Amino acid sequence: MAQKSKILIIGGSGSTGKYIVEESEKAGHPTFALVRENTALILKILHIGDIYHHESLVKAIKQVDVVICALGSPEQIADQVKIVAAIKEAGNIKRFFPSEFGVNVDRAKAVDPVEHHLRVKASIQRSIEAEGVPYTYLGQVEIIGDGNTKVIFSKEEDIATYTIKAVDDPRTLNRVLHIRPPANILSFNEIVSLWEKKIGKTLEKTYLLEDQLLKKIQG
């Protein structure tokens, strides 16, 4: 049996990161989490470090095979360039998963402030590719429209499962892995219909037109 990759998870105490840590350990990977010195986190193995402290970040990266970033704030998303730089210097990483876990940023269309956030994520992907860092991007194909448009639903546990399964899968290297569970592809009208069946009542529905939605977003 091939040896399991050693995984470093950055943001392992967050809403998505904690599930990735659990899934990684459950799958038998030697699992590490990068935490700040003053952070309390119950894990088997910790690396003390910070994405804003280059030397500690490089030191932690050199001890693993795969880096998964699960940081969530817009500022931290943009600062993933620091992780890319550390991976480049370390020179030993066979796969990097940036903090994506949402829509495919090269296909999605949105309005500000969401549009700006997507462009930041896209710029991180371009940096990864320019530096020649091996990667896997996880994303969903979502199209938001009227109540009949299909949308893909997933939860953090699903994202964690797909992420860890992709770690040692050669088919996902330098690719975008789309999360599309068939049973989770529904329109909002279908969701409402399921809810009506569950409660045994017909709900009064109000539809928000696109121009009305844009005005609300801009406000």
Automatic annotation (TrEMBL):
One of its GO terms (biological process) is lignan biosynthetic process. Keywords: NADP, Oxidoreductase. One of its GO terms (molecular function) is oxidoreductase activity. It holds the Pfam family NmrA. It comes from the Eukaryota. InterPro entries: NAD(P)-bd_dom_sf (IPR036291), NmrA-like (IPR008030), NmrA-type/Isoflavone_red_sf (IPR050608), PCBER-like (IPR045312). Residues 3-138, 149-217 form the NmrA-like domain. Coiled coil: none annotated. PANTHER family: PHENYLCOUMARAN BENZYLIC ETHER REDUCTASE-LIKE PROTEIN FI1, PINORESINOL REDUCTASE-RELATED. This is NmrA-like domain-containing protein.
